[in-house]
Design brief:
Helix 1 crosses helix 3 (63-87), helix 1 runs antiparallel to helix 5 (106-130) and helix 3 (63-87) packs antiparallel against helix 5. The chain has helices spanning 3-20, 42-61, 63-87, 95-98, 106-130. With 136 residues, the chain is mostly helical. Helices cover 68% and strands 0% of the residues. The termini are close together. It is built from 5 helices and no strands. It has one domain (3-133). It is globular.
């Protein structure tokens, strides 16, 4: 199995973990925020589960499918995190439409959007590093 396929498998696991955060006792505060930062709802959970399924299916199919997943996923999630960093709302959960631009402390915006920036950025970087031989 190629590096891109292994990375897609790891993404499937990480995304399933993200979807489970609301359901692990002790990880949410009284306001329902995971780690006191992320207010995840059922739509976020569904997004993470769908992304995990996409990653798992891509890893199962081929290196080329894994490369496509990592590239498109990376662009979507990094873009969502970047928009969240600038405006306080992302687009994947329709937050920019539902809540508009939010006046939040910049440090909070960094913490809240770091997972999408990191996941998206690493996905794009992995394609750049390992994607040349993604014909299989």
């Amino acid at each position: 199995m190629t590096n891109l396929r292994w990375i897609a498998v790891i993404y499937a696991i990480v995304l399933l973990f993200a979807a489970s955060l609301n359901y692990i006792p002790g990880l949410t505060d009284g306001q329902g925020r995971s780690f006191g930062i992320f207010a995840l709802d059922i739509f976020d959970d569904l997004l993470h589960v769908a992304s995990a399924a996409w990653a798992a299916i891509a890893a199962y199919i081929s290196t080329r499918a894994s490369r496509a997943f990592l590239l498109y996923f990376g662009i979507l999630y990094f873009g969502d995190g970047f928009l969240g960093l600038i405006t306080g709302s992302g687009y994947l959960d329709l937050g920019i439409i539902n809540y508009g631009i939010q006046n939040l402390p910049f440090g909070f915006k960094i913490l809240a959007n770091l997972p999408h920036l990191a996941l998206g950025g690493f996905a794009i970087l992995s394609v750049l590093l390992f994607g040349r031989n993604a014909d299989a």
